[in-house]
């Protein structure tokens, strides 16, 4: 097979050797790392863990978010009240290739596994003026929303600066803002992030029923 570049993903192993975790009753797996619950407690309830040593998400920003959960749960949740859960996080990730691949939320396969019916909106970068002007038309915006609703459940962006753009969708998911809200957000022109607004506008157009379209055509004749 002839290729231009090779990406080697060797993986990583948790650095648990020499910590003497057995002495304090902290269970761990040599490959997966320290065992924690959803509150990031280890099997010794007085000891917490955060970051690559105990999580499937191996990202710096994921470790930072987990550390904040540990601080809240240990110092600011008296008697266990108001504790935060790792599973409550909406975690974006980016693969820093060229173009970049950014994702947040559910994929089509994950939505299907969870029994969530979705619709998918796809906007290729060939439809985004700034991408055309930059000569960066390799990529797309893909947004999944619940069928019959504008609720965003996941998104993938493939673009030169996808990692810079995925946060808008992440904010929408966390803030429970649907595609209708994103459609109302004014995006500076020309920017590649306008692809997100194009996806939101595409959803809005699906709300036009046949009857509404006919009415609009009639009104257009008199305008």
List the SSEs and their pairings.
Blueprint: E1 28-29, E2 33-34, H1 60-75, E3 93-95, E4 100-105, H2 108-113, E5 118-124, H3 129-134, E6 140-146, E7 152-159, H4 162-174, H5 179-183, H6 194-206, H7 210-222
Antiparallel strand pairs: 1-2, 3-4, 4-7, 5-6, 6-7
Give me a quick take on this structure.
This protein is of the alpha+beta class. The protein is 32% helix and 16% strand.
Explain how this protein is built.
The chain has 223 residues and is of the alpha+beta class. It folds into 2 domains: 21-88, 3-Layer(bba) Sandwich (FAD/NAD(P)-binding domain), CATH 3.50.50.60; 93-206, 2-Layer Sandwich (Enolase-like, domain 1). 32% of the residues lie in helices and 16% in strands. The protein contains 7 helices and 7 strands. It has helices at 60-75, 108-113, 129-134, 162-174, 179-183, 194-206, 210-222; strands at 28-29, 33-34, 93-95, 100-105, 118-124, 140-146, 152-159. The chain has a 5-stranded antiparallel beta sheet. Strands 1-2 form a two-stranded antiparallel ribbon. The mean pLDDT is 94.
Number of domains: 2
Compute the average pLDDT: 94
**What's the shape?**
globular
Rg on CA atoms, Å:
22 Å
| CA(first)-CA(last) distance | 61 Å
CATH class of the largest domain: Alpha Beta
What's the SSE pattern? EEHEEHEHEEHHHH
Enter the CATH topology name of the largest domain.
Enolase-like, domain 1
> How many individual β-strands?
7
The major sheet is characterized as:
5 strands, antiparallel
Helix content: 25-40%
- Bin the strand percentage: 15-25%
What class would the helix/strand composition place it in?
Answer: alpha+beta
Largest sheet: spatial strand order: 3-4-7-6-5
| Uncertain ranges | none
């Amino acid at each position: 097979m002839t290729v231009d570049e090779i990406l080697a993903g060797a993986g990583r192993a948790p650095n648990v050797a020499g910590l003497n975790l057995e002495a304090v009753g902290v269970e761990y797996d040599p490959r997966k790392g320290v065992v924690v619950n959803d509150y990031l407690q280890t099997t010794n309830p007085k000891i917490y863990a955060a970051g690559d040593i105990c999580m499937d998400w191996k990202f710096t920003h994921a470790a930072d978010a987990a550390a904040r959960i540990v601080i809240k749960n240990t110092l600011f949740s008296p008697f266990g009240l108001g504790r935060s859960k790792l599973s409550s996080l909406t975690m974006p990730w980016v693969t820093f290739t060229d173009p970049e691949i950014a994702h947040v939320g559910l994929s089509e396969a994950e939505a299907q596994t969870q029994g969530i019916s979705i619709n998918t909106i796809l906007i290729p970068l060939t439809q985004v003026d700034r991408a055309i002007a930059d000569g960066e038309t390799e990529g797309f915006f893909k947004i999944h929303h619940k069928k019959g609703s504008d609720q965003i459940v996941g998104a993938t962006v493939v673009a030169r600066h996808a990692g810079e753009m995925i946060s808008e969708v992440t904010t929408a998911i966390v803030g429970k803002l649907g595609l209708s809200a994103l459609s109302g957000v004014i995006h500076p022109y020309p920017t590649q992030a306008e692809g997100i607004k194009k996806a939101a506008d595409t959803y809005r157009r699906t709300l036009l029923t046949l009857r509404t379209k006919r009415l609009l055509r009639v009104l257009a004749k008199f305008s």
